[in-house]
Design a protein that fits this description.
13-stranded parallel beta sheet; 868 residues; alpha/beta
């Protein structure tokens, strides 16, 4: 029976996932024969997992955690590679758990590959990992099936998909490489003897290992002579011993690839005209000296930030020239230098082309450097400040991140997202130009605080298209605000920025005037939190204020002026507020937010914490917004809201149903009825003096109706309803009270002066009965209307009835509570009886404070009452 296309692709995907390599036509033929004979893919994975090829890559002496980490680093393209650090950790934990359960490594790898293959590429957690696997499989199919090529070594097969990531552009590039490799050359492995090797017309590969304790014991020798012949040839050097590298002579070998685990200098004096020199997955410092021709310097798969790459050109090769730096999936590499290693360096132009995601510690350049260009579809971050270059251009579609403090630097962007930091010092008149492109770009002015720091008419600060962020210190926003419109225009800030980020806590009365700094700005982000009283002038309705850290003091106040909010007839103004500090197991108090003329306030209570949230991670902000009608709360962090805003006469609704962590809110003092809706977590909701409608939803909520006749609904879980003193409580209606053990709780501590926990006496009739507890639960149907009016009063307090005489029990001369159940399991009424004015109970001593509707068919127990 012939194998199907689908099964063949599954075999190729399995090899890709297990070995980070294409199978090649010959290996694929063997594996397909086994599967066609009845071997399942899982059994094939188990067999391959026990093979010497697999155990050479992942030795059996590795612990389960070490194996999981090493395997996933290869499978995901790095640590964390194509996923976040948190998801990488989750994946490691999952693999370790499967191994600990007794599964073999081959079976666990099969499970991982199968799971990732089934993930949609749009998935926010592992979609990029799925895309990488799909893309690598596509290229492996092209190599093994379409062109029917076979590699000589595992390294050859790894190289087929080595540059393929989740980016579809890498598939096109890799296929083009495969299509160009039909003229496949030979593979030559150098020995401890003297080797004189000559390649043919194909693309030959020479392999040398520096692995001996002495030069003579190395896997290649100083007297070796390599001639690549025709084709595009490669010399691969692996260094595991720090002895002096042999001085090999090469002719017609274009590309050099070096991997070292020790600090090593390789002398290239006898390499004839190399086109490229690549640091390939090294974990230590690599220096290549005496390079006689300018070419491409590559850094590929380097993830150890101590791994500095230095390519030293001979003095005669440098001058007015350009060096290409090729970064490929090097997520955490050290500094890169490619010049003649003098103070000047001898190189004027550097072009950094990126594939995948890359970060290098520095791009080290001499004083001759004039220009740096960031190109390619991948992402590049240079951590250290770029020195000397007066022109920096981002031309590719990928993201680039870099900094400069060079005088008169000119920076331009393109379609990618650029993150630019300028480190010019304050106190000096600076000239520079930043004109970014169509991406979502960011520019940070790190130190500037004076108007004079920006030389009039000599500065350009332009975000271009996209959603762009301009970051500056609070003092600079203040001085720009205080300039005239004409004067601020000379500072070069184009009205092309959408987000203004304030990088530090401001001084008293620092102001952001968006009529001066940029009317196009719709978000103002106080990344460091408030430092004192701050102001925003003319933020557009629908704009956003971000508070990114706790205020310096709880009373620090931000006053937000929404554009035209005070204009007559303006009744639909909106302000969005985002609370997103980095929590550390404690509440963050963001201070006070004042927005006097805004009708709708939307609060997103969230966090920038990278690890899991804990219960103590909460957000607190005081609001003052007298005209607020609607307050909506979303996010994933508990929001603690209070302040004068919540007593405003206009306030109608507080809706926190979009929040997933909980809300604490009080409208105490508000005179109108307000609708308050809680979350599905634990909420603390307090109404005001009007007839409020409060819904707790899920969670064990604490609901206080306050004054007024309130409508209260607890929702799921056991909720606590808190009553005020009888004189102010009003008549609250509770819609879903659950009686019995584990049910809801009536907190009556404000209604009775008794101390201690609740005591419950159940009375089955209106006949005289001893009464010595604080809560009297009447189940009799003998009361006429069950409303404590008319004949009911006589039934309970008349001569010979249950409460005809003064109580002599625990509640003597105190208030006590009577609950009347209609015995139908659906309603109950709650009364407070105040005996403090005398011995006899009359109608003036009895007040209806609550009605319980839709009561569960059960009976009250002491735990349903809290008198403490």
């Amino acid at each position: 029976m012939a194998i199907t296309v689908e099964t063949r692709t599954d075999i190729i995907e399995l090899v890709v996932g297990m070995f980070d390599a294409a199978p090649g036509a010959s290996v694929l033929s063997e594996l397909a024969t086994s599967v066609d004979a009845g071997l399942s893919l899982k059994d094939l994975a188990i067999t391959l997992g026990n093979s010497s090829v697999f155990t050479a890559e992942y030795p059996t002496f590795l612990t389960n955690t070490e194996f999981a980490t090493n395997y996933l680093t290869n499978f995901l393209g790095g640590n964390p590679g194509e996923v976040s650090s948190a998801n990488f950790t989750l994946a490691v934990d999952a693999v370790v758990a499967l191994l600990n359960s007794g599964k073999s490594r081959g079976e666990v790898v099969y499970d991982v590959i199968t799971a990732v293959s089934a993930v949609a590429e749009t998935d926010t957690n592992f979609g990029t990992a799925a895309a990488r696997l799909n893309n690598q499989t596509e290229v492996a199919v092209h190599y093994s099936v379409t062109t029917q090529q076979s590699g000589s070594t595992l390294d050859d097969l790894k190289a087929v998909i080595d540059t393929v990531t989740s980016d579809d552009a890498t598939v096109t590039a890799a296929k083009a490489t495969v299509d160009g490799s039909d003229n496949e050359g030979g593979t030559f492995t150098l020995t401890t003897a003297i080797d004189t090797l000559k390649g043919g017309s194909g693309n030959d590969t020479f392999i040398g290992a520096q692995n001996g304790a002495t030069e003579g014991a190395q896997g290649y020798q100083t007297a070796d002579n390599l001639d690549g012949g025709a084709g595009t040839d490669l010399f691969k050097i692996t260094v595991t011993d720090a002895t002096t590298a042999p001085l090999v002579s090469t002719t017609n070998v274009e590309n050099f690839e070096i991997q070292t685990t020790v600090a090593e200098t390789v002398n290239a004096a006898n390499w004839s005209s190399p086109s490229s020199i690549t640091n390939k997955q090294s974990t230590n410092t690599l220096t290549v000296s005496n390079v006689g021709a300018i070419g491409t310097v590559g850094v590929s798969g380097v993830t150890n930030n101590t791994s500095t790459t230095t390519v030293q050109y001979s003095a005669s090769t440098t001058g007015d020239t350009t060096v290409n730096i090729a970064l490929t999936n090097s997520s955490d590499a050290g500094a890169v230098r490619a010049d003649n290693n003098t103070a000047g360096g001898g190189v004027e132009n550097f072009v950094v082309t990126s594939v995948g995601t890359n970060k290098i510690a520095a791009l080290t350049m001499g004083t001759d450097a004039k220009k740096v260009t960031f190109a390619g579809d991948g992402n590049a971050t240079v951590t250290a400040t770029l020195a000397n270059a007066t022109t920096i251009a981002a031309t590719g579609a990928g993201k680039s991140s870099f900094s400069s403090a060079v005088a008169k630097v000119a920076i331009t962007g393109a379609a990618g997202a650029e993150t630019v930091t300028l480190g010019h010092t304050s106190g000096t008149a600076h000239e520079f130009s930043v004109a970014l492109g169509a991406g979502n770009d960011s520019l940070t002015l790190t130190n500037l605080v004076l108007a004079a720091d920006l030389t009039d008419s000599k500065v350009t600060i332009d975000g271009g298209e996209g959603t762009d962020t301009l970051t500056m210190k609070s003092a600079l926003t203040e001085v720009l605000t205080n300039l005239s419109t004409t004067a601020v225009a000379k500072k070069g800030i184009a009205n092309t920025w959408e987000v203004l980020k304030v990088s530090d806590q401001g001084a008293a009365n620092d102001t952001v005037d968006l009529t001066k700094i940029g009317s196009n700005i719709t978000t103002v982000d106080y990344a460091a939190g408030l430092g004192d009283a701050q102001d925003i002038v003319d933020l557009a309705s629908g704009g956003t204020v971000v508070l990114g850290a706790a205020a310096s003091a709880a009373g620090d106040t931000l006053t937000v002026g929404v554009k035209d909010a005070n204009v007559a007839g303006s009744s639909s103004d909106v302000l969005n507020v985002k609370l997103d500090g980095s929590h550390a197991g404690a509440d963050l108090d963001y201070g006070v937010l004042v927005a006097a003329a805004v009708e709708t306030i939307n609060i997103n209570s969230t966090t920038t914490k990278l690890t899991a949230l804990v219960a103590a991670d909460t957000n607190q902000v005081d609001l003052t917004a007298a005209n607020a009608v609607n307050i909506n709360v979303t996010g994933n962090v508990l929001a603690d809201l209070d302040g004068a805003a919540l007593t405003g006469n206009a306030l109608a609704t507080i809706d926190a149903t979009g929040n997933t962590a909980g809300v604490n809110v009080t409208t105490a003092g508000a005179t109108q009825g307000i609708s308050i809706k809680g979350t599905d977590k634990v909420d603390n909701l307090t109404g005001g003096n009007g007839a409020d409608a409060i819904v707790g939803n899920g969670g064990k909520d604490v609901i206080t109706g306050g004054q007024g006749d309130d409508a209260l609904t607890g929702g799921a879980d056991a909720d606590t309803f808190v009553f005020e003193a009888a004189a102010t409580n009003g008549k609250d209606t509770i819609a879903d009270f659950t009686m019995g053990t584990g049910g809801d709780v009536l907190n009556l501590s404000a209604l009775t002066s008794a101390a201690g926990s609740a005591n419950l006496t159940t009375i089955g009739s209106t006949a005289a009965q001893a009464m010595a507890d604080n809560v009297l639960y009447i189940t009799s149907q003998d009361t006429a209307g069950k409303d404590f009016g008319g004949a009911d009063f006589a039934d309970l307090f008349g001569a010979g009835k249950a409460f005809a005489t003064t109580d002599t029990g625990a509640s003597a001369a105190n208030s006590f509570v009577i609950v009347i159940d209609d015995n139908a399991g659906s309603a109950a009424q709650l009364y407070i009886v105040d005996q403090s004015d005398g011995d006899a109970v009359d109608a003036t001593d009895v007040t209806l404070v609550g009605v319980l509707t839709d009561v569960t068919a059960s009976s009250f127990v002491a735990a349903n009452f809290d008198l403490t």
